[in-house]
């Protein structure tokens, strides 16, 4: 029998300290959760919302502006570290390198979408999932 906790409880430590998204030979990115216990992300998103409140209310904020700001928020609050192989086949270190993260996500919107999808839901950060991974 499965308890409701097993289905919905998240690991708040991994929500802030991150999980690794493995992209095989292309590299890896360690990410905090976009939400949950990650208060830095929530504060940055609230700041963005205050700054563009009127445009958001009227649904007139250009998509490019929203995406550019969201990429910056991810660079500041979600991407903790990582190593990826760049366009020139050289290793790109992401830890402490906001510009590299912004450039990477700007150049590769599908990568940004994948990171956003994997970090915005609770599934990757569920306590039961983390326990299973630890066993393996």
Report on the architecture of this protein:
A hairpin with a 4-residue loop joins strand 1 and strand 2. The protein is α+β, with helices and mostly antiparallel strands and 136 residues long. The relative contact order is 0.18. Helices cover 55% and strands 14% of the residues. The longest helix is centred in the middle third of the chain and has 15 residues. It has one domain. Helix 5 crosses helix 6 and helix 6 packs across helix 7. The radius of gyration is 16 Å and the shape is flat. The chain has a four-stranded antiparallel beta sheet. The mean pLDDT is 92. The protein has eight helices and four strands.
Summarize the structure.
The protein is α+β, with helices and mostly antiparallel strands and 136 residues long. The chain is 55% helix and 14% strand.
